[in-house]
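INTERNAL TRANSFER SHEET
From: sequence group
To: structure group
Subject: Na+/solute symporter

Please process the attached sequence and return the structure record in the designated field. Keep the field labels unchanged so the import script can parse them.
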Amino acid sequence: MILSTSTVLFSIFLFANLIVGLLAGRRVKNLRDYSIGNRDFSTGALTATIVATWIGGGTMIYGLANIYSNGLGFIIPLLGTSLGLLLTGLVTDRMGEFLNNLFVAEAMGDLYGKLARIITAFSGILWGIGGLAIQFKVVAKILTLIFGFEGPGVTIAAALIIIIYSAFGGIRAVTTTDIFQFFAFGIFVPILALVIWNSIKEPHKAIYTLATNPIFSFKELIGWNTKSANFLTFLIYGITPTMVPAVFQRIVMAQGLTQARKAYTYAAGVSVLMFLFVIWIGILLLANNPNLSPNNLLNFIIDNYSYTWLKGLIGIGIISMAMSTADSDLNSSAVLFVNDIIKPLGIFNKNLMLITRVLALVLGAFALLLALRMQDLLSILLLSGSFYMPIVSVPLLLAIFGFRSTTRAVLIGMSAGFITVLWWEIFMGKTGINSLGLGMVANLIFLIGSHYILQEQGGWIGIQKKRTLIGSKASPPRSLEKVYW
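Return from structure group:
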């Protein structure tokens, strides 16, 4: 009876998402509608879709496991991601010149040329596919743990629902379902925390655990070791305004910079609350049961704290977190492929909407295959992140803060970031230290270094109302001006 009730609730939830998503996407007429809509979203809707995209299903699986086993070494970087959202909101004031762009790759192309645009697009697509695969893995795990469904067939069926409404409905469908999913996991996480808190017979154990367990001591994070290095890497990764495709997309979806700043500021506050509930769940589990396997915490919660109604709510809540991130990654990846690879190369000039939807189906299927083959969520995350953060984030953030260089210097920096990550993974992977931060530092050093050593044009020119594409010494300076109002 418990299984049938949970299954019915879950089936209704999936079907409702499919219908809502398809109905919301009926007004899509062109690629601009598909990618950013008509810029008529309310601040509340933008806030909800930002939070829903930012907090994925891995937070309740991978996140809980690391809170339980690593304590502050994971809690601080996790909360740091909320600071990253806040900082993203603050830097939007400097992004007026980018509001005419559909996506981040187009912005990079206007700044540094076609090759930089295509590289950024490929990096963003790989990021999106990795993120999509992670969420599909989460969906598969929840279907097995809560609903007892086994085999890849069920995972494929659930993934197809996400792929279909995202592929055919565009960003309006994504945003509408994100709001729906935001309320689903926004209700589930606090309720679960309260249920676990009420079931503990000795609540003071939580305070005692925080005071005595070494994983909650700041001393454990200080030193020259793998744990400290990874802590610092993930902290930098978390607080950096990453400007990944979905983040950039939410900014240009806004009615203006003021609304974008407000939405990201509100989203940062909401995400802190959500993360604090998740952190509190992990601490309560550790205090009450210090000998559990971190990888089986969700199994333990389901077996020990799930009533008839709560079991279905857990499933819906976690899968909502996964779906709300997955649909955004799929939408951004498909638009990047069409707008920033196909169009610049002049491969197809007609039926762009049809091509976008077909590519969304293809990229979704590819991510599904990746999810079925790879087992470790963290490996997928770091793999996809390594193709974006060390390549794109550095020159883009420098441009936002007012530093411009030439195409040559930017490509040197991008190459250095990628080569550093590749070299480290091949030759130094056994150290256990993540290469993502090293790649970003290499990009920064080589970009700035090559700019001044080669005496390139540009430098710290400040916030621009018009965009300038600075030429390299190998070619005459070119300019591309676009008024952002």
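Handover comment: The mean pLDDT is 83. The longest helix spans residues 152-199.
Transfer complete.
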